[in-house]
Amino acid sequence: MQLEGFFECSALLGAGVYLLCRKGEVVYVGQSNRAYARIYAHKNAWRSVRVARFLKRRHGIDRIHFDAVYVRPCAVSDLDRIERELIEKYLPRYNIKLVPPAMETKVVHLTIRGVKLAINASTKSNGMEVERRI
Asked: Most buried of 29, 55, 85, 91, CB within 10 angstroms?
C-alpha cells in the first residue's frame, strides 16, 4: 500500500540489528526482538537513573546521543552474529560488552634466561595464560 507523504517502517516491529549514528559516525550497534522499543529506550535513557549512572560512570555522558538510526531486519537466530560483525566493522565507541576479537587477546613475547615465553592476556578470562615456547 502506498500512502502519499508516508514511508513504510514495519521492519521496526520485528527483530533486527540497529546502528545509532552521530554526525555520520556509528556510535553504537545493538540488537533487539522489537527494534522500535529498544531504539525508543535509547532515546529516553536519560529518564532511567540506573542507565544514566552507568553511562556517566563509564563514558562521562548521560545517554548515547544520536541523530540517525539504521535498522537491518533479520531472524532472531542471526541477531548475535550480525551484531558481532557490525561491531567488528565499525568499532563503535559505546559498545563495550562485545569487544572485537582483535582486541580480546594480546600476546607478549619474553625471553627470560634463555627461555622464550609467550604470555597471552585475555580480556575474556580476566587472567593470564602462559605458554612455554622454546
From this structure: 29
Residue-level pLDDT at 67: 92
Domain ranges, ordered by start, for the chain: 10-98, 99-134
Distance from C-alpha of 31 to C-alpha of 77, rounded to nearest angstrom: 11
Instruction: Report the alpha-carbon distance of residue 115 to residue 106 in Å, rounded.
Output: 20
User: pLDDT tens digits for 43-62?
Assistant: 876 566 776 677 677 666 66
Contact 45, 26 (CB under 8 A): no
Class of domain 10-98: alpha beta
Instruction: Count the alpha carbons within 13 Å of 90 in the hemisphere toward its beta carbon.
Output: 23
Give the three cell numbers for residue 21. 549514528
